[in-house]
Amino acid sequence: MDRRIKFRHLEAFVAIARANRLKRAAEQLNLTQPAISKTLRDLENILGVTLMTRDRAGVRLTPEGQVFLQYAEQSTAALRQGISSIASHSEAGGHVVKIGVLPSVAAQVLPAAIEIFRGASPKTVLHVVEGSHGFLTDCLRAGDLDLVVGRLGDAATMRGLSFTALYAERVVAVVAPDHPQRGATRLEQLEGDLIIYPPEASAIRPLMARLMISRGVPLFADRIECVSGALGRAMTLGALRPVWFISRGVVADDLDAGRLVALDLDMGPTEGAVGIMARSEENPSPLVGLFRGALSDAAKSLDSGRAGH
């Protein structure tokens, strides 16, 4: 881009094109007619083309002017929106950002992201909905959510949505510290146990199915299908003593504190991307963009913490 082109050139050109007369455009911009005429001539000299012709009926765009007008309008509008959004960060009372989260994200990366976001926009209201992958993506497509944070689903669930990866996560099998299967190293050893297993609507169900097929193990017959962190944790530590298959993020704090123990199973095939889902081809609002940045920063901190361990 030619550095000689300034905002005043674009603003004057757009105003003249919209007003169709130099005098009217000059009044709108609080300029004299000679001043706005000179600004237009300067722009045409910089570009090396004639953008407008003048006659008694007003001004008319040349073919080059018609092409340039599209980009000049976009540029001036984008700059004005950027200026307005700066003020919105400090005057965001009443603005709401609606976030959908899967349980694994709610437990780990989301609290850190919210802390970062509120440091930049403390007056914005965050509306957070936790649910299954299918439910949240349906809400996102319907416009009820601004974005969803969780695992990448299969192709059918991602129709009309984009995905930006943040980090990778595996499913783990966890038990109470005194569980008799604590030393299990193969899935086949768990066939006689009560299992808490992800339901069909969950993002990790296909990953678990892939794992079971690769190991030649049939679907566990004695199972409870659930991805609720609260229920899964209470049952795993309760009298029934099930084996719980769940995303590691849901139980990360429990594992670190020793409240639960992860079985030494090869869960490599269950690793999948966790990231941000949004409606395709939609430009996010400045506040939604700010929250996306907060999620990215929180995910980087999470990865650094894992590397440290």
From TrEMBL:
One of its GO terms (molecular function) is DNA binding. Coiled coil: none annotated. GO terms for cellular component: cytosol. InterPro entries: HTH-type_LysR_regulators, LysR_HTH_N, LysR_subst-bd, TF_PcaQ, WH-like_DNA-bd_sf, WH_DNA-bd_sf. Residues 5-62 form the HTH lysR-type domain. It holds the Pfam family HTH_1. The keyword Disulfide bond does not apply. GO terms for biological process: 3,4-dihydroxybenzoate catabolic process; positive regulation of DNA-templated transcription. Keywords: DNA-binding, Transcription, Transcription regulation. The keyword Transcription applies. Belongs to the LysR transcriptional regulatory family. This is LysR family transcriptional regulator, pca operon transcriptional activator. It comes from Loktanella salsilacus.
